[in-house]
Design brief:
heterodimer, A: mainly alpha, Butyryl-CoA Dehydrogenase, subunit A, domain 3, globular, B: alpha/beta, Double Stranded RNA Binding Domain, Arc Repressor Mutant, subunit A, 2 domains, 40% helix
């Protein structure tokens, strides 16, 4: 018997947290909501035609990654600096929060492939092979992007 | 260097229900954009919380509390559409009519039904069953005859036993010849209760 996808509600309940974390990390809280809605609406539109339901998490994160790239490109066209989307009130937050915000601001400032690789690896806990499939590159290229991304983050944050 | 990787891994864990709230908004949008093929929710009843599911055509499934929710939804996903969302407001009309029925104030349902889960033979049997008036009963044999299969009372029994919309399609109004209760998907206690509610059976006192 061919198993189609599970009821959409179950799919949504299972993957909404991973998608939300991925998007907050990729585009920041302010834009995560719109990207989240677009990700799952796209998934819902394509859902009945989905015949391979074995890796739904990878599938939905691939859509989310595309929506995150769209958001970044749209922002670049508007020429809004990345940091503006994540401004925190320095007086009301602890040093740890400030340090973490600096890391995330640096993540959002990475070139797109490096950013995708870093967020998929550390926030979505994806193995390299799946990162490659999600971004649409070779496994070696995914490893390289991840390595370059981490190097840039260390330079930016220390 | 370890610090960065640690901060990255810890990222987004302070989320506090925001993903859940976003998912609720998503379901509302899916409904508004016509992308929800099946909406489900619960309906309180004297038997406990019934699971109800509706399509744009009408009520497609009503399940007793002991039925496995995942199984019910899986079957809807395979037979109707996997675009299934939890949207209790879509069941307001069904909830309203069922409330009235259980309170004794409604004798026939006006809800439209979606017979997507009912096969061709069962459709004839359940069609004949739907025409049995409130408070009256027929035998399995009589229902089989009305469905055009006079000797198929066993087959009629099977069709009634797999009624996906019990109560609204009143399979509880079908008894054995001679008046014994026969069977019921929701259990004989409930069949007796429904027949007593409708006045077809005297209440034990």
């Amino acid at each position: 018997m061919s198993d189609g996808p599970p009821p959409f509600q179950r799919f949504l309940d299972c993957h909404r947290d991973a998608v939300w974390r991925f998007l907050v990390a990729s585009v920041g809280r302010a834009e995560a909501e719109d990207c989240f809605q677009e990700t799952f609406l796209s998934a819902l539109r394509a859902y009945p035609e989905l015949h391979d339901a074995r890796n739904l998490r990878g599938w939905v994160l691939t859509i989310a990654n595309r929506k995150a790239l769209d958001a970044h490109r749209a922002r670049a066209r508007r020429a809004v600096p990345v940091a503006d989307a994540t401004t925190v009130d320095a007086r009301s937050v602890s040093d740890t929060t400030r340090a973490e915000e600096a890391v995330w601001a640096a993540v959002r400032a990475l070139p797109e492939r490096q950013r995708s690789a870093v967020v998929l690896r550390y926030v979505a806990d994806m193995p390299h092979r799946e990162i490659a499939a999600t971004i649409g590159c070779s496994e070696d290229a995914a490893r390289r992007s991840l390595h370059e991304g981490l190097t840039k983050l260390r330079e930016a944050v220390t | 260097m370890i610090d960065i990787e640690r901060s990255l891994r810890a990222g987004g864990e302070d989320d506090g229900g925001q993903a859940e709230a976003a998912a609720v908004r998503l379901v509302a949008r899916a409904g508004a954009e016509g992308l929800a093929d099946v909406s489900y929710g619960t309906v309180d009843s004297p038997f406990g919380a019934l699971l109800a599911a509706t399509t744009r055509r009408g009520l497609v499934r009503l399940a007793f509390p002991e039925e496995d929710v995942d199984e019910v939804l899986e079957r809807l996903a395979r037979r109707v559409s996997p675009r299934i969302v939890q949207a209790p407001a879509a069941l307001d009309a069904a909830r309203h009519e069922l409330d009235e029925y259980f309170n004794g104030g409604r004798r026939r349902f006006e809800l439209t039904l979606d017979r997507a889960l009912i096969g061709p033979f069962s459709r004839r049997v359940l069609g004949a069953t739907s025409r049995i008036p409130y408070g009256q009963v027929l035998s399995y044999q009589e229902v089989a005859a009305k469905a055009g299969s006079p000797r198929g009372s066993r087959a009629a029994g099977n069709a009634l036993g797999s009624n996906p919309i019990p109560i609204v399609i009143p399979c509880h109004r079908v008894l054995r010849t001679g008046g014994a209760l026969g069977g019921y998907g929701g259990g004989l206690e409930r069949k007796r209760w429904l027949l007593e509610l409708e006045g077809a059976l005297q209440r034990d006192s």
